[in-house]
Amino acid sequence: SPKKTLDGKKVLITAGPTREAFDPVRYFTNYSSGKMGYSLAHVLQERGAEVTLISGPTHLKTPEHVSRINVTSAIEMFEAVMKRESEMDAVIMSAAIADYRPKEIFHQKMKKQEGSLFVEMVRNPDILLELGKRKDKQVLIGFAAETEHLEDYAKEKLRKKNLDMIVANNIAEEGSGFEKDTNKVSFYYPDGNFKSFELMTKHQVSEHIVDALEELFKVSDLS
Ligand code: PMT
């Protein structure tokens, strides 16, 4: 069994999509299955970390010895994360959080009407941006899911959200990103360093992310 290199570390991980209600029968969401985040939770736990998993709606089984908190919307995920972030040694945001939600939630089923339907969407809070503002000694890792300009957009998120590392996945690439069992990622760091990986299973990607987290802990424990 793996060495307990993360003994005593508290790690918060988010996974899955969020679901933004429109009326009693409809909602907006995205294709995240939760596989990437659940796999990370499993590997973190194997290495001895105390893992809290905040999850949007998925069909996945909770990894053993991981404490799971279920949420539905981005606002619920925001509240669940902010309630716990200050006691964490690291936060990894692998959830695919909806950037927008319907401005109005209808309490009755929306009936068909003549012509087009226009739905006004308003911005959801950016959880990672807020974590970046509050960060002190904590290690903060984000993801970037992009279909183009992967490197530029990932580096921009790394800087803007005050992260220690970002995992960039090109979701337009064959076998990569949402729902798949594999992923092709690159890691970017604030000092300009980066690492690019071949396509591999999400489990293998998780091993690399957790290796990187251990390195980041070494650096932050020294300072
Ligand atoms: O769940 P799977 O099917 O296994 O797919 C994995 C994945 C593709 C969902 C995952 O690997 C991934 O890329 N997750 C991040 C998806 C995403 O929303 O990326 P983004 O580039 O839109 O967001 C950038 C970062 O900010 C992410 O860490 C995200 O969690 C965070 N964010 C985004 C919006 C928001 N309102 N609040 C946030 O905290």
UniProtKB/TrEMBL annotation:
Pathway: Cofactor biosynthesis; coenzyme A biosynthesis; CoA from (R)-pantothenate: step 3/5; Cofactor biosynthesis; coenzyme A biosynthesis; CoA from (R)-pantothenate: step 2/5. It comes from the Bacteria. Residues 6-215 form the DNA/pantothenate metabolism flavoprotein C-terminal domain. Its cofactor is FMN; Mg(2+). Binds 1 FMN per subunit. Keywords: Decarboxylase, Flavoprotein, FMN, Ligase, Lyase, Magnesium, Metal-binding, Multifunctional enzyme. The keyword Lyase applies. In the N-terminal section; belongs to the HFCD (homo-oligomeric flavin containing Cys decarboxylase) superfamily. This is Coenzyme A biosynthesis bifunctional protein CoaBC. It comes from Terrilactibacillus laevilacticus. The gene is coaBC.
